[in-house]
Design the sequence.
């Protein structure tokens, strides 16, 4: 049986264009064809999962915003007023907002909320604990969160998504992401950034808190130990979601720094995850680029974004879809009665 990647490349070369002339769009098509096991690949439906959760480390004054903003932003997305609502609508993504550990009581029933997107109640904790003072999650909470993420991967398959994306929402999540990656071996100076836009003194404080927290927790350099000691329920669910996509033939587009930190933990557990991951964009946050590079992922766009919520992922995913549309809808040389080159073109 012919290799899927080779077959997809032949399909692209037979379309009415110079060979390789769609550039990186062709590479995205080839990778998605390999993921789906289908030439050409197909995206009938696509869905983004925005994981919302609170982070105990916010109590150490590492963010400009109070923790109640997480809950307020959940309600904003449910009402259709957030950045992800605007961009997902414009690029035809279905939004799945996941309560993956928001502080406070359970949200009111859908009959009262009247959500304008899918609302998935999957919380295993009411926020993570403050890892400056204690481990962020118990072993049981971690395992339940990972399993919830894997369950949501199966949900994506049941919804017949040809492409998925992951977004994040939660005050303090860049601190959690940085701590996890520092524990994984990255330089703190490369990982700790301004997040929501903190000033220089606050940045120094944030860096101190993260470095000291990693020393205090001193987790083993395994994905699960890092999540337990320095992670959160929402990042653990993202990790489980990515791991759970194995063998489901669904690609996944990553958003910014917090999502990429969860992807990196998944990569530590199973390096094969890079085979079904795309980097939607390169965010403004400093630690994003080195984490992507370590996993061998090249960002699709670089727009200096740092909003989160999956906004960069849906833009990158839309570009992947444009490549798929070209691969599926362009005529071949024979269909269009156009003479192909008699000589083999050099791709450049």
Sequence:
């Amino acid at each position: 049986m012919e290799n899927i990647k080779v077959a997809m490349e032949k399909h692209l070369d037979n379309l009415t264009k110079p060979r390789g002339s769609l550039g990186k769009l062709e590479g995205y098509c080839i990778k998605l064809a390999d993921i789906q096991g289908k030439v050409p690949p197909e995206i009938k439906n696509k869905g983004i999962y925005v994981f919302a959760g609170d982070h105990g480390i916010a109590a150490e004054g590492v963010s400009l915003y109070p923790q109640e903003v997480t809950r307020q932003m959940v309600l904003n997305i449910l009402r259709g007023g957030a950045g992800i609502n605007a961009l997902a609508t414009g690029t035809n993504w279905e939004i799945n907002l996941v309560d993956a550990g928001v502080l406070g009581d359970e949200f009111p029933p859908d009959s009262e909320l009247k959500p304008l997107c899918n609302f998935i109640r999957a919380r295993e904790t009411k926020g993570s604990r403050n890892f400056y003072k204690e481990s962020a999650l118990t072993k049981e909470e971690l395992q339940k969160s990972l399993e919830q993420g894997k369950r949501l991967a199966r949900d994506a398959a049941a919804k017949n998504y040809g492409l998925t994306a992951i977004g994040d929402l939660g005050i303090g999540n860049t601190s959690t992401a940085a701590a996890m990656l520092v524990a994984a071996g990255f330089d703190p100076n490369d990982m700790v950034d301004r997040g929501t836009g903190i000033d220089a003194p606050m940045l120094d404080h944030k860096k101190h808190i993260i470095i000291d927290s990693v020393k205090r927790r001193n987790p083993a350099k395994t994905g699960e130990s890092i999540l337990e000691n320095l992670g959160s329920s929402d990042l653990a669910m993202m990790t489980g979601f990515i791991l759970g996509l194995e063998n489901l033939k669904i690609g996944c587009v990553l958003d910014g720094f917090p999502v990429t930190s969860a992807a990196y933990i998944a990569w530590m557990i199973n390096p094969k995850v890079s085979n079904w991951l795309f980097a939607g964009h390169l965010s403004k946050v400093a630690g994003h680029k080195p984490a992507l590079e370590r996993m061998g992922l090249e960002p699709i766009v670089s727009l200096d974004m740092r909003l989160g919520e999956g906004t960069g992922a849906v833009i990158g995913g839309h570009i992947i879809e444009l490549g798929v549309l070209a691969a599926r809808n362009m005529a071949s040389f024979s269909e269009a009665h156009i003479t192909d080159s008699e000589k083999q073109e050099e791709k450049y």
About this structure: The chain has one domain: 43-322. The chain is about 45% helix and 10% strand.
